[in-house]
Amino acid sequence: MNVFVTGVAGFIGFHLAKRLLDEGHRVLGLDNLNPYYDPSLKKDRLAQLEACDGFTFRLLDLADRPGMETVFSENSFDAVVHLAAQAGVRHSIDNPHVYVESNLTGFLHILEGCRSTSVPHLVYASSSSVYGGNTAMPFSVHDNVDHPLSLYAATKKANELMAHTYAALYGVPCTGLRFFTVYGPWGRPDMALFRFTKAILEGKPIDIYNYGDMQRDFTYIDDIIEGVCRSMFLVPRPDPAWDGSRPDPGTSFAPYRVYNIGGAHPVHLLHFIDVLERTLGRQAEKNMLPLQKGDVKATCADASDLEEAVGFRPEVTVETGIKRFVDWYRSYYRF
To answer: How far apart are CA 170 and CA 168, in angstroms?
Structure first.
């Protein structure tokens, strides 16, 4: 297959591209290598991909309309996996404009490219953040998600609405994947596991929000990639059971689906930190803080729809996942 992967130098994009290349597919990867976090980490990921046969890289910003039109006009894709976005709940509070440019304008350019070239399947990253103010656990794709708590979450919800519009108007098959707290080797430095590991090894305190009373459905990167790959090969079709008088947000009369990818086993933050401490062989100095704006106290995925559709559900435990991350961190940073 010829697969277009955006955000290819990012955490998830890198792992997906590597998996596809290892399986013999051809990948055109796009990234703007922005400095939201250390670009050297992105460049090191990219260097691994550039050593693989079948990989081509384009340095380009999603918001560059002429550049994006050229990418689609000069290539024929069997699938597009759109992972590029301005990430970060907290960052969106202080820097809202970049989220509109990347996550809304950029996504429009992806949709237009898929429409104009009749791409057989668009798979795109949504987020567990769309559940916002919802408190009923586990979170289900069949629940209403109209109460976001951050602009980042609002842009991801908007992506789902935009994708549905293109599925309904133009028949573009779209699958949205709501990722739940992804972690693992080559992860993002702004994420909790990376920040905690760095601080503990450097003898610095770690910030723990809501005084530690938080739970997250941590999902290991390999599980995320397995779910993405299986979803790529399951092109959505209109749901004949969809009823406009009782609209189901997770399906549609159009070729559109949304799935959760999460372990369905939320882990208390303090237990997560305890596992990390035992793995590192060091105790953390804990700085207890109140809940931050835009954050939620708990997440838990109902991944039954994904399991029913593609026969897979995440299975890597936090004990295993944290050890793999720490092993990578010590090797990469020679710590």
So the answer is: 6
Distances (CA, A) of 292 to 296, 301, 320: 8, 22, 29
**Residue 174 pairs with which residues in a beta bridge?**
122, 256
Catalytic position from the list 99, 131, 152, 183:
152
Q: What's the pLDDT tens digit per position in 110-158? A: 999 999 999 999 999 999 999 999 999 999 999 999 999 999 999 999 9
Which two tokens mark 181? 């707290």
pTM (global) more than 0.90:
yes
Report d(CA 137, CA 41) in Å as an integer: 35
**Can you list the pairs that 63-72 forms with residues at least 24 positions away whose Cβ atoms lie under 8 Å?**
63/101, 63/102, 63/105, 63/106, 63/109, 64/109, 65/109, 68/106, 68/109, 68/110, 68/112, 68/113, 69/109, 69/112, 69/113, 69/116, 71/4, 71/28, 71/30, 71/113, 72/113, 72/114, 72/116, 72/117
Task: Scan for tokens 């997560």, then name that residue.
Answer: 272
CA distance 101 to 323: 37
Cross-strand bridge partners of residue 258: 176
Q: Which of 163, 174, 176, 303 is nearest to 238 (CA)?
A: 174
- Residue 138's contacts (CB-CB under 8 Å, 6 or more residues apart) are 264, 300, 301, 302
Q: Per-residue pLDDT tens for 18-48?
A: 999 999 999 999 999 999 899 999 999 999 9
Question: By C-alpha distance, which of 122, 74, 159, 138 is closest to 301?
Answer: 138
- H or E element at residue 6: strand 2-6
Counting every residue written for the chain, the total comes to 335
- Could you give the CA distance from residue 113 to residue 216 in angstroms, rounded to a whole number? 35
183 counts as catalytic: no
Which residues fall within 8 angstroms of residue 168, CB to CB, at 6 or more apart?
Answer: 252, 253, 254, 256
How far is it, in rounded angstroms, from Cα 319 to Cα 273? 11
Give the separation between CA 285 and CA 206, rounded to whole angstroms.
6
Q: Which amino acid is at 146?
A: D
* Cα–Cα dist 255/214, whole Å: 36
